[in-house]
Design a protein that fits this description.
The complex is a heterodimer of chains A (114) and B (117). Chain A has no helices and 11 strands. In chain A, the strands form 2 sheets. In chain A, strands 2, 4, 5, 6, 9, 10 and 11 form a 7-stranded mixed beta sheet that branches. Chain A has a 4-stranded antiparallel beta sheet with strand order 1-3-8-7, with no helix packed on it. Chain B has 117 residues and is mainly β. In chain B, the strands form 3 sheets. In chain B, strands 2, 5, 6, 10, 11 and 12 form a 6-stranded mixed beta sheet that branches. A 4-stranded antiparallel beta sheet of chain B has the order 3-9-8-7, with no helix packed on it. The radius of gyration of chain B is 14 Å and the shape is globular. Chain B starts with a strand and ends with a strand. The chains are: A mainly beta (114), B mainly beta (117). At the A-B interface, strand 5 and strand 10 of A face strand 6 and strand 10 of B.
């Protein structure tokens, strides 16, 4: 069974641009969560989607948004990029809900904002 | 607010030896879950071990075991017979149960473990 797939793996953007990251969960998994990982802040929860609905949300500004499609694939979008948005963005899937804490992670999308 | 603290940013151990990674947490909840996740270099994060607070018995997964001290709010990870493949960043995480469907994992900043040959 294929694992969680995130694309692109690496990308470089400039301030003010926007970016869209994609995540394909493990087949059959219905929950997708997104995290931002930085050395100073560690892992910060962005949001969780379940059956195309945002179930939970972290404390990030409205520039960060996401969605989930009927096949459980998810995208997250960051608009008006800032230097501080440079990070590794991790996607994690779980079978039913992230409430179990048992998450399956992708390798991440490393975003650099210049 | 709930917090997770990993006081050892970096550690090293010789192959085949035993190492213990520390984690403390702060919460007012009585029922919760604790986790150790492992993130190898340039590879995906994987769940190592999970502990339910209401279970007194320490969780064990092969060479990985925990020492869960609920009163002290301590949750350390012991790796026995360390192998080169154990080299990774280890994250301790907490999840309370009071928030219902709005539960979130609260993460420590991680401990970078190097296993030396």
């Amino acid at each position: 069974k294929a694992g969680v797939t995130q694309t692109p793996r690496y990308l470089i953007k400039t301030r003010g641009q926007q970016v869209t990251l994609s995540c394909s969960p493990i087949s059959g998994h219905r929950s997708v969560s997104w995290y931002q990982q930085t050395p100073g802040q560690g892992l910060q929860f962005l949001f969780e989607y379940f059956s195309e609905t945002q179930r939970n949300k972290g404390n990030f500004p409205g520039r960060f948004s996401g969605r989930q499609f009927s096949n459980s694939r998810s995208e997250m979008n960051v608009s008006t990029l800032e230097l501080g948005d440079s990070a590794l963005y991790l996607c994690a899937s779980s079978l039913t809900s992230a409430n179990t804490g048992e998450l399956f992670f992708g390798e991440g999308s490393r975003l650099t904002v210049l | 607010a709930q917090t997770v603290t990993q006081s050892q940013p970096e550690m090293s151990v010789q192959e085949a030896e035993t190492v213990t990674l520390s984690c403390t947490y702060d919460t007012s909840e009585n029922n919760y879950y604790l986790f150790w996740y492992k993130q190898p270099p340039s590879r995906q994060m994987i769940l190592v071990i999970r502990q339910e607070a209401y279970k007194q018995q320490n969780a064990t997964e092969n060479r990985f075991s925990v020492n869960f001290q609920k009163a002290a709010k301590s949750f350390s990870l012991k790796i026995s017979d360390s192998q080169l493949g154990d080299t990774a960043m280890y994250f301790c995480a907490f999840m309370g149960t009071n928030a219902g469907n709005n539960r979130k994992l609260i993460w420590g900043l991680g401990t970078s473990l190097a296993v030396n040959p």
